[in-house]
Design goal:
By secondary structure, the protein is an alpha/beta fold. It folds into two domains: 161 residues, Quinone Oxidoreductase, Chain A, domain 1 (Alpha-Beta Complex), CATH 3.90.180; 138 residues, NAD(P)-binding Rossmann-like Domain (Rossmann fold), CATH 3.40.50.720. The protein is 27% helix and 28% strand. The protein contains eleven helices and 18 strands. The strands form four sheets. Strands 3, 5, 6, 9, 10, 17 and 18 form a seven-stranded mixed β-sheet that branches. A six-stranded parallel β-sheet has the order 13-12-11-14-15-16, with helices on both faces. The longest helix has 15 residues.
Length: 343
């Protein structure tokens, strides 16, 4: 038997016992080692995420160890450490046929449209599992999934050398955006947050300038940092609708806005006039593609991307309810909480 944390109603988690999954053809059973909890999980937990059908086992940023493989599995073996790709695609729709499985019409996110990784075991097709180097801590390696989504967004927008980049929000994803923009040769890279602690981390991530939005006008600060030009790229990693207007103001003519942060709320007092006047380009970015995983693993495994200090707290699976209560109580002070399963 195997245990899982089942969300039966908003803010109601129960530890349930289920039959241990069995690997079918092309599948592998993974004993989950760690699952990172992000803002999407918090929105599902509180009932604020639309369209989620309960009961549901949440969790999509996960690592573990292969416990068994089914017939036809050739790339994985029992005992191998892996990270899960949570973007599940049907493989048959028009989006999948174009190689855009992250936009699959009939798929979904592990832990949202289907039961996820807040469990002792999961079973997945081999193609959704990626081997990890032995030296990587499995809890720390959960951050690779977030990094893969960050890489996907910046690759879509073509963030590159010499571009001035502003990152709004310095949570876990924002800090990774800051690092990846610097690695791409962008500069100056300006980190914006209301949290002095997160801005200190952003400096460690090599941000050229940091802006405390609780004490400074971010638009004026960005203009100053860019010599009055405005930014070539603004990345909204905060997901706050009211920031869209200032983000457009920050951009130089011909600039690019990456809408990375997720919000289900309407944008207040929005006008498209700046898009016309400055001929701006807006990029949406949804999750990741398989091509993002290999580079993301290498960036963390090689130490090029720093994820030290991203894990704010660790909880065992049987205290998952306490983890979500703590997260909801102080979301602004948490980068990632990690739920670990029994060895």
């Amino acid at each position: 038997m195997s245990h899982a944390a089942l969300l039966t109603a908003p803010r109601r988690l129960e530890l349930v016992t289920r039959p241990q999954p069995v690997a079918g053809p092309g599948e592998a059973v993974v004993r989950v080692a760690a699952t990172a909890v992000c803002h999407t999980d918090l929105e599902i937990y509180t009932g604020r995420h639309p369209g989620v059908r309960l009961p549901r086992v949440m969790g999509h940023e996960a690592t573990g160890v292969v416990e068994a493989v089914g017939p036809g599995v050739g790339r994985l073996r029992p005992g191998q450490r892996v990270i899960l790709n949570p973007v599940i695609a049907c493989g048959a729709c028009d989006c999948c046929a174009r190689g855009r499985g992250n936009l699959c019409r009939d798929g979904g996110l592990f832990g949202r449209e289907m039961d996820g990784s807040l469990a002792e075991h999961v079973v997945l097709p081999e193609r959704y599992l990626y081997p990890l180097p032995e030296h990587l801590s499995l809890p720390v390696a959960t951050l690779i999934e977030t990094l893969a989504t960050v890489r996907h967004a910046q690759t879509r927008a073509g963030v590159g050398p010499g571009e001035s980049v502003v990152v709004l929000g310095q949570g876990a994803a924002g800090l990774l955006h800051t690092q990846l923009a610097k690695r791409a040769g962008a500069g100056p890279v300006v980190a914006v947050s209301r949290s002095p602690a997160k801005l200190a981390l952003a400096r460690r991530m090599k941000a050229d300038e940091v802006v405390d939005a609780s004490r400074q006008d971010p638009v004026a600060a960005v203009r100053e940092a860019t010599g009055g030009r405005g930014a070539d790229v603004v990345i909204d990693a905060a997901g706050v609708p009211s920031l869209l207007g200032p983000a457009l103001e920050m951009l130089t003519p011909g600039g690019k806005l990456i809408v990375y942060g997720i919000s289900h709320h309407r944008v207040p007092d929005f006008t498209t006039f700046p898009l016309y006047l400055k001929e701006l380009t807006v990029y949406g970015s949804r999750a990741l593609t398989p091509e993002d995983f290999g580079p993301a693993i290498e960036l963390v495994a090689s130490g090029v991307v720093d994820v030290e200090g991203f894990i704010t707290g660790t909880y065992p699976l049987d205290r998952v309810a306490a983890a979500f209560e703590d997260y909801e109580r102080a979301p602004g002070s948490i980068l990632r909480l990690v739920i670990v399963s029994p060895a």
